[in-house]
Amino acid sequence: MGNRSSKPNLRTQAVPSRTQDALYKNFESLDGSHPYRAKVPEGYILYPVEKIEGARILYFNFELAEEMGLVPTNGDHKLNRMLEKKILDTFALKIVNEFEQEKKRAQKIDLSVLPKYMATRYLQLQHQSKTGKTSGDGRSIWNGCVKNKDKIWDVSSRGTGVTRLAPGAVEAGKPLPTGCEKFGYGCGLAELDELVGSALMSEIFHRQGIKTERMLAIIQSGKETGIGVRAAPNLLRPAHILMYLKQNNLGALTRSLDYLIERQVQNGEWHINTKGKHKYELMLKCIENDFARFAARLDVDYIFLWLDWDGDNVLANGGIIDYGSVRQFGVRHDQYRFDDGPRYSTNLNEQKCKAQQIVQAFAQAVDFVKTGKKKPLATFKSHPHVLNFSEDFKYFRLERILYRLGFDLRQCRYLLSRHLKAAKDFVKRFQYFER
Q1: Hey, which bits of 129-210 come out as E strands?
Q2: What whole-number distance in Å separates Cα of residue 313 and Cα of residue 304?
Q3: DSSP 117-130
Q4: Residue 148 neighbours by CB under 8 Å, 6+ apart
Q5: pLDDT tens for each residue of 332-368
Q6: For the whole prediction, is pTM greater than 0.85?
């Protein structure tokens, strides 16, 4: 996908063999290794993986691949035989889960020779356990990370098979075969139309300046199923971190916060001294600012995202992940709720409060790390950064409404600094008609 052609061109082209190794060498770093594995060893389960035979490439985002350094810049946006092989060798993978491991052991097949990839643990509302001990990547593995220029990219694949962290596997109380549909969220596969929709919507949001996962590739692995390969400078969710707050695990909480800070600093998103004594407070300020801006953008642009206390369907730097429940409306359809079977989601009006609750939980986490004592969440309702969230949200909301009227950002900031009352009066009238 790219600007050079209006249509994706997946024709296989020949490439000189002497250049093959150098052209696509960065794919080799996506081998299942990841710094998170050393930093937070209790944060994942390792699964052996096997190659899927007969898989084919349905979609490849050349523009994103160039940003990540996986393909040469300014090259033809066409597949050649070597690139096609690299993509399939790297991403056409399925896990050997607990159900299949039992079968292979009975057949005396050695699993130790297979490469291993992590499925990460994090909080999820769908699980009865609200502490993250049984939840996380239910159908995904992390391929690893790749560095290009001054940015590090995380890469993960969904639709690779059902893990024991899937809600369906927990409900069943036993290992499930991939493809089983007897239990909700227990299949482990991804439908192609879901993946294509995610690819289109995430790229549209990215081009509008919204932080989001982006689809690097779609691998068709079955008649109607496939693997969606997603990438972002940081795929960590608040749920990866707040899990240890719920578990009262001070050591893992500290290490996961340190990991988040280090990655955000490495990518130039946060400017924090990682060795400084105030790094957690500075991190909290960054999170508050990121989530206030993000929540305001969702509110003004009528983007529904299932925000909740678990911090599952959102990136830790204030961005979108998991497009299954994401919607964008043409008018303020603020009564819409996503039907998730046993429960309904929050609605558009509630997203601001849920984003603020995530900031409040991070305030609780920072205090826990600094004092070694976990105080009740309600204690932090009036925390300075939690209160600042409300003010920043109002400012960013005003700024976004003015921008959508046609002012550029410089003009928006001028109006908000010199004519704040007039801007507020206009927005008050606008909201009357909007609602």
Answers
A1: 140-148, 151-158, 190-191
A2: 11
A3: EEEEB---TTSS-S
A4: 26, 67, 68, 69
A5: 999 999 998 778 999 999 999 999 999 999 999 999 9
A6: yes
